[in-house]
Model the fold of this input.
Amino acid sequence: MNTIHILYHQLIEAWNNRNAREMSDLFAEEGEMIGFDGSLAIGRSDIYGHLWPVFESHPTAPFITKVKSVQLLNSEAAILRAIAGMVPPGQTDLNPDVNTHQTLVAVKREDKWLIQLFQNTPAKFHGRPELTEQMTKELRQLIK
Done:
């Protein structure tokens, strides 16, 4: 697993552990997060301020993820693309309605990789239910 995979895994683990501080600390100081609903948070403190009430107010479902590609743009920038699904609390199967494409842009600052941008884009595939089924099937293989 390369460094960018590890950074992404740490982000997903922080989400799954409902830890706003750990999650926000993975971002560059001026990093940005675009949520599933289109919410935009800019900067570590704003990202923390966005996540903390989410984790405090209701049980968030953990992500099941699969990295699809990592592209090193240069020695200090990379893009990771993944797909993700969620198993709602108390259930054992994915909810295909919340499948998502995830994009992470990482930058290297002072020999440390940080998240510059993390974006969740709903995988709705309007009018193409077979694509939803395909993504869900691919992610179901990862449920332990």
Remarks:
- The helical segments are 3-16, 20-25, 44-57, 129-140.
- DSSP finds four helices and six strands in the chain.
- The mean pLDDT is 94.
